[in-house]
Amino acid sequence: EQLKVCPKNVSIWSPEFSASGIRNMQLEFFPQGRETATLDGFCSVFFWCPEGTNIKYQLFVGNHYRAPDEDTYDSRMGHGHSNFCLLDAEIDHAADSVTVGVDIVDVSRVYEMGRGEIKVHRLSLNSLVRREVLVVENRDVSLVEWKISKISRRLAAAPRGASLYSPIFTAAGIHDMLLEFYPNGNANTKKDGYCSLYLRCPEGTQIVVTLIVGSYRKGPIMAKFDGSAGKGLPEFCELAEQINKDEDSIVVGLELKNAAPGTDGGSKKTVLRLESGQSFQQ
Question: pTM for the full model?
């Protein structure tokens, strides 16, 4: 009810919180969008940090993630997105609630040291350990499936060029992987009804990968990542033919041919499923 009666350009603030050694962080959420929002029904989200913070993070509302952002805070202020996502698609109507959050990927602080500066990167010990544990736990993962629910609403609301991002995941010994999906295609898509799909990996990664939307597959192809740009196709397939109409969902994913270093590359296949901001193996 609070979301429905909240007018445009009025925000809801989270309590202040601390994470990764940084205090006084806060999320600002505009249920009906900030004044600068241009898409009807889209909410706005901003992440506030203290002066001197340099942070890489991934904002999410419900199951909708944005690509990781990296920002430097010259003063205490908010960084984020005015046209974040279609809010109605992310509301848990049974619980009459929506979850707004942030995944912190990396943090650094700039400190004045006499005549110069020093930049210190720091994550909590638990975060560092968890990151390395995921690399080990998911080294046998060769198939990743990302289920996107309420796809019909997303298609209707998202213009061409609007993207969905998976949570960051680890597979086959590779950390910080990310799927980038455009339900209505991107700026390079020429055919109506076609979707676009890309994979992002850390610089220097080289893999043999098959990209998947529903039952449609493209690959295997050799992909080498030499920057932040993703590898994929602007005209991947006709999306309507791949939607699970009973569940109003689509499964997007990838299959990796490479074995992680130290594995035997045998027939064992572990599936990593991404859904509702969480991941689990089968």
Answer: 0.75
